[in-house]
Structures are given as structure tokens and as C-alpha cells.
Write a structure and sequence with these properties.
heterodimer, A: alpha+beta, Nuclear Transport Factor 2, Chain: A, 6-stranded mixed β-sheet, 4-stranded antiparallel β-sheet, 10 strands, B: mainly alpha, 4 helices, globular, DUF1871 domain-containing protein (chain B)
Chain lengths: 376, 92
């Protein structure tokens, strides 16, 4: 049975155009059982969609020629349309994209972050794809993990259902500057001496500049008023766990043979996959020496690396997957750090800047031999 | 193969085998890694640059990668000069 405070959030989703996350008590006392059923059906539909899309998460923004500007569980932050010559054009609706990003990362999005997004779209439309991705990287969003992807997904569902970006933002107590955001407003030029790349709040961790609103820059902490989405997500997660357990039991059922029923289920096999710590100290010649996975993530992209990415058909997500979950990490000369997965090799400088990358189709005999050693 | 093609090919090999700041020069599938820098090297050579100027140019390219310093740029510049000289002597 769904508790009352969860149900009103589900209803908020269903009736988003009118009342998205508006004052509590959306479900009136005389809500009928049928109405309740409809709310649950709608939530289940949403849950089903999420389960399908969550299988392939995109932790970083990526522009694809067919879809648009994508993040998280395939959520589109900006759409591709075709102009009169049939050329693909990426369009960013600043208000919508800002509302989505703010919902995903639980922070108001600063105007300069959105301006960089717009700039990336312009560059992409001018066929400067590498530069466009560099602009995206410089926005400095944190990786979109599963929780952020789910918040993004729900926010997108609300907008699709008809809620306005402003309604979504205001219902979540976001900084009021957002509603007044104007992409044409003159910007403070780069290099003005402002500190960048820090969270504004005193008890918060490091955060990108894209999420610092003007008020936060003045020392005010983010509002953190995303309780509505959180509560809805808690409820959805509960449902998700239930359905996952159901799936598991239904998968096991047909696998049981008559023999199993006598001798009991087959014991679970634990196959440990290779990890960087398995190869620490091993010398692989010019490729480098195995090290533990360092606390070094992808922080930015060099233009040389961006060009190699495009040429070699490597996505930002491929690189993030490799750096986040490498099979091996090698310390190379001159401070380079080499991350290898079965699909991609990524080389970072000591500061976390991607300096080059190549895909499995460019793995040479040495790299293939290394992978053979890893999987031995 | 004419002189320019030969010089270009040899510069490409030197950039991959001697300079190789990104550590991929051994991989034959990545032979194009530094191709983008060949035209500027050729332009400098065409303007009769010195070894030091060529070294500074290579260091300038490396600067954006912010790698730990070493002496490969100097050695590479020297080798490119020697190679150019060799090509010119042979043609003379």
C-alpha cells in the first residue's frame, strides 16, 4: 500500500501542468480508489521506463548527431533539429536545460554555465565538434551518477508532462536568479579574478563553477530544497528493489532442473574481474609500471585529445568508463597516467587532463598482449 | 619520392620515435599522432630557424600537456636539423 505522502508526489507527476510539486496535500481527502490506481499505474510506467534506460548511463554530457545533448539515462538536454538544408542543428533551451541540470545535481545552475552550454551548441552547429566538447568539459559538471541520472530522468518526465521549467525550479526552492536568467545578458568576462570551481556552502564538498549562483557566490548556501524529488525517488527505489527481486526469482525458476530440486541450488560462483591493484609494481616496458588506481579523474580535455577522440570515434563516456573502471593503470614517464579497459586507452597528465586516447581498433600487439596478461 | 616528401616522412618518424611526449610512438596504428605538428616544423625549417628556436617550438607544443620536463625536445630538434642537413647534402 502506498503511503499518503508518497501518493501526493505521484499525483504531482500526473498533474504536473497544474500543480507540479506545489504545496503539499495535493491528494484531497476524498480521492477515489480508482484515482489512486491511476496514480500507481503512471508511476509504474515511469519506473519501467527508467529500468530500461538506466542500463546505459552517460556520466558526462555528450552531443550525438542523431539525438542531441545527452546526459544520464539518455535524457536529452538539447534536441537536434534539421534546418532547411537538412543540416543537423543543436538547440539549447536555456530555461529547460537549466531546470533539468539543477534538478539532477540539486544545485541552481549559474548563468555562465548555461552560457557555456549555448556556446558549445553554437560551436557544434559550426562543425567545430571538438571545440564544442571542450566547452562542455569546461562547464565542469560533476559526473552524473545513477542518483543524479534518476533525478534528471524524473525532472524530464515532469517537463514532458507539461510542467514549466520555472514551476519545477520554484517548487524546489531554487535561487530566484534563475527565473530572470537571460542568455543575452552581458557576461562578466573570463579572467576577472573571481575564484572558481568551489562549492559556495561551508559544509559542502568541491563543486564546479556552473552551479554557483550569484547568491551562492555571495556566501549563501544552495537551497537544497529538493525534498519532493527525493521522497518520490525513495518511493521509486523501493518499488525498483521489489521488482528487481521479483525478476531475480522469476529468472531462477526455469533454471532449476529436476536434479537441482534434489541436490539444491547450484552454489553462486564468484569470479573476480581484474583490477589495477592486481598489477601494482609490474613493469610493462614503455607502456609503464602498474599502479593502484589513483584519485585522479578526468578534469579537462586537451584540444589534441579532443581531436583524437573525434578522429578515433571515442565518446567522452567511453573515456570516463575507462578512467572510472580501468582494468589496469600504468604510471608512465613524464608523469603520464595510462588507463586501459577492453575498449579504450586514455592517457592523462598529472593534473587529470586527457592528453590522448585511442580505441581497441588501434591497440597494437603490446597492448593486446597486456590485455591477454590481464585476463589470463 | 621527392625531397619534401622524404623530409616530411623523416620528421614524422623523429616526432614519433624521439620526441613522443604522449608515449604512443611505438604503436604503428597511431603513426598519425603528431602529424598535426609537422607543418609548423616544416614552416620553421623553411624560415631557416635555429635549433634553439625549433626546440622552443616543440616545448611550446608540449606546454599544453603540462608534463614533467625532460630533454627530448632538445634532442629532437637536433635530430631534425641533422636529418634536414643529411637530405640537403644528398641532394647537393
Amino acid at each position: 500500500m502506498i503511503s499518503r505522502d508518497r501518493t501526493d508526489l505521484v499525483r504531482a507527476y500526473v498533474h504536473a501542468p497544474v500543480s507540479a510539486f506545489a504545496p503539499r496535500g495535493i491528494v484531497p481527502p476524498n480521492t477515489s480508489a480508482r484515482e489512486m490506481e491511476l496514480l500507481v499505474e503512471r508511476a509504474q510506467e515511469l519506473l519501467h521506463k527508467w529500468n530500461e534506460r538506466a542500463e546505459r548511463l552517460h556520466p558526462c554530457m555528450e552531443i550525438t548527431g542523431e539525438g542531441g545533448l545527452m546526459l544520464g539515462a539518455g535524457t536529452m538536454l538539447g534536441e537536434i533539429w534539421r534546418d532547411e538544408y537538412g543540416r543537423p542543428r543543436l538547440a539549447i533551451d536555456g530555461a529547460r536545460t537549466g531546470a533539468l541540470l539543477a534538478s539532477a545535481f540539486e544545485r541552481p545552475v549559474a548563468a555562465d554555465g548555461l552560457a557555456k552550454l549555448q556556446r558549445a551548441a553554437v560551436l557544434w552547429n559550426e562543425d567545430e565538434k571538438a571545440l564544442a566538447h571542450i566547452h562542455l568539459a569546461h562547464i565542469g559538471l560533476p559526473p552524473c551518477d545513477e542518483a543524479a541520472a534518476l533525478r534528471l530522468f524524473i525532472a524530464d518526465a515532469l517537463l514532458t508532462a507539461g510542467a514549466s521549467p520555472q514551476t519545477l525550479i520554484e517548487a524546489q526552492n531554487l535561487a530566484p536568479h534563475f527565473a530572470k536568467f537571460n542568455i543575452d545578458q552581458p557576461r562578466v568576462p573570463a579572467g576577472n579574478g573571481r575564484e572558481s570551481g568551489q562549492w559556495a556552502g561551508e559544509d559542502a564538498g568541491p563543486a564546479p563553477a556552473a552551479f554557483r549562483s550569484r547568491r551562492e557566490r555571495g556566501g549563501r548556501r544552495g537551497s537544497g530544497g529538493f525534498h519532493a524529488i527525493h521522497e518520490f525517488l525513495d518511493w521509486l527505489r523501493g518499488k525498483s528493489n521489489e521488482s528487481a527481486q521479483e525478476d531475480k526469482s522469476s529468472e531462477l525458476q526455469p533454471a532449476l532442473s529436476p536434479t537441482d530440486s534434489i541436490s539444491g541450488p547450484v552454489p553462486e560462483q564468484h569470479v573476480s574481474s581484474p583490477k589495477p591493484s592486481d598489477f601494482v609494481g609490474q613493469d610493462f616496458g614503455k607502456l609503464g609500471v602498474g599502479i593502484e588506481k589513483p584519485q585522479l579523474g578526468i578534469r579537462e580535455f586537451d584540444s589534441h585529445a579532443a581531436e583524437r577522440m573525434i578522429e578515433r570515434g571515442i565518446s567522452i563516456n567511453d573515456m570516463h568508463d575507462t578512467v572510472d573502471r580501468p582494468l589496469i593503470v600504468l604510471q608512465q614517464t613524464r608523469g603520464r597516467v595510462y588507463y586501459l579497459s577492453d575498449n579504450v586507452a586514455v592517457v592523462l597528465n598529472p593534473k587529470g587532463r586527457v592528453i590522448t586516447t585511442y580505441s581497441a581498433s588501434d591497440f597494437d600487439a603490446k597492448v593486446k598482449a597486456l590485455l591477454g596478461h590481464i585476463h589470463k | 619520392m621527392n625531397n619534401t616528401e622524404e623530409t616530411t616522412k623523416r620528421i614524422r618518424t623523429i616526432l614519433l620515435k624521439d620526441w613522443d611526449p604522449l608515449g604512443v610512438g611505438d604503436n604503428p596504428n597511431l603513426a598519425d599522432e603528431y602529424d598535426a605538428y609537422i607543418p609548423s616544423v616544416l614552416a620553421l625549417l623553411g624560415n631557416h630557424c635555429t635549433v634553439d628556436e625549433l626546440e622552443r617550438h616543440l616545448l611550446g607544443v608540449e606546454a599544453s600537456w603540462e608534463l614533467a620536463p625532460d630533454s627530448t625536445a632538445a634532442q629532437t630538434a637536433r635530430k631534425i636539423f641533422d636529418t634536414l642537413q643529411e637530405c640537403q647534402d644528398r641532394d647537393a
